[in-house]
Amino acid sequence: MVVAFAIIRMKDLFAVVMLLGIYGLLSASFFVAMDAVDVAFTEAAVGAGISTLLMLVVIAITGRKEKANRHKPLPALLIVLITGGLLVYGTLDMPHFGAADAPIHNHVAPRYIDDSMAEVGVPNIVTSVLASYRAFDTFGEVVVIFTAGIGVLTLLSVARRKEDDEEATAINDSMHEQHLVIRIVAKILIPFILLFALYVQFHGDFGPGGGFQAGVIFAAAIILYTMLFGLNTARKVINQTFIQLIAAIGVLLYGSVGIVSLMNGGNFFDYNVLASDPIAGQHLGILLIEWGVGCTVASIMIVIFFNFAGRRELYQHNQVPQNQEPS
Amino acid sequence: MLIDLFNHWIVITLMMCGLYMVIAHGNLIKKLVGLAVFQTSVFIFYISMAKVDGGTAPILADGIVHYSNPLPHVLILTAIVVGIATTALGLSLVVRIKEAYGSIEEEEIQQQDIQHQKNNAHTKVKLEEEA
């Protein structure tokens, strides 16, 4: 909360973004305290990692100083106070913190906790709800992520030019001297981060983890690599067209699991019919769609970062036409 | 006990911080940061609702009777990733605005728009006079 107030006061956008990263990390540790280990995984990778980096790249493009004048701070404060007051008034009827008889614990949750082992056969309830009971919902979320990725691509994608490459390599060589320690440490760490992402992906049935978490952790490793070794080196390792293809394949894989279960005579995303044994079918279905989710999330995050970083490089080379008047 | 509602109040304070940032600041990146704060406050709200006294993480194991509610965890897990994807979309819009206007301050952009409209109206009148 202190961090949030500091964020409002700060004019320097760089510090604001760093504080936002701290805020993300703090809320991740809060989620651990609240038993939400899966959520904490995701928030730590996204809130403290990827979103901070994305904001930093954008600040590098747009400049880090905020103008001093705020428009109408008093009416804004008034609106905020009134809304906040009304919300506080609304909480007076809310169930108390940690109460086991709160309405949300009496609706579908007991069914998930009591029966999911028998029906789905996966110890991690979060995974079984995410991938089996609410598979259709999750499919929607994956499509939203995919669409957002396409949106970023449309807005920011730049045609790559060959002659830039040599220049960039020269810059890279000079950077080699500057960040030697960080680079060597990162080189040692990145394989383990990638390995950990795969562990999170496959262990999601039994411990905290799953496609979303694995996707963001994997993407964070690749982004770290890109930051340290330059965009062009990273593009040599990972072809962007290939990554875009993977993103589409992930969504397709997810959707086709649903179609296959339809064809086998079940409902959409009814994995019981995928194998002769319902539990085996559930396992297979969850494994496949978690793969779909992991592929899509990881590649969309990487594509988004590549495009932002690509824009920034264009800026450094002053190739973007600066038309002051909108035409 | 009123003090048992403190989790809601923390959420509301954070949320209002975010809202204030969105309304009162002209800088587009600052607005997006405000949205992110707002968003995270909603995450905290859901997760704190899921907590049950004496419960543990919702991973089935022998000898554990109480689990926290898994449903909000699922919802927020996906919401976080969707949130970063949409924030990225917003940031890319900011980059394009910067390219088109040379500024990411709301007021400067509005002034440029008004200027532009005036110029357009002017040329239109001129054209009509000539005709």
What descriptors fit this protein?
heterodimer; A: mainly alpha; 2 domains; 13 helices; 75% helix; disordered C terminus; B: 131 residues; mainly alpha; Helix Hairpins; 0% strand
What does this molecule look like?
The complex is a heterodimer of chains A (327) and B (131). With 327 residues, chain A is mainly alpha-helical. Chain A has two domains: 1-68, no CATH class; 120-318, no CATH class. Chain A has helices spanning 2-9, 13-33, 37-62, 73-91, 109-119, 125-133, 135-156, 164-178, 180-203, 211-229, 231-237, 240-263, 278-316. In chain A, helix 3 packs parallel to helix 10, helix 6 (125-133) crosses helix 13 (278-316) and helix 7 (135-156) packs parallel to helix 13 (278-316). The longest helix of chain A has 39 residues, at 278-316. Chain B is mostly helical. Chain B has a domain at 2-51 and 67-105: Orthogonal Bundle (Helix Hairpins), CATH 1.10.287. Chain B is built from four helices and no strands. Chain B has helices spanning 6-24, 28-50, 70-101, 106-130. Chain B is elongated. Chains A and B meet through helix 1, helix 2, helix 3, helix 4 and helix 5 of A and helix 1, helix 2, helix 3 and helix 4 of B.
How do you describe this structure in short?
The two termini of chain A are 43 Å apart. Chain A is mostly helical and 327 residues long. Chain A is 75% helix and 0% strand.
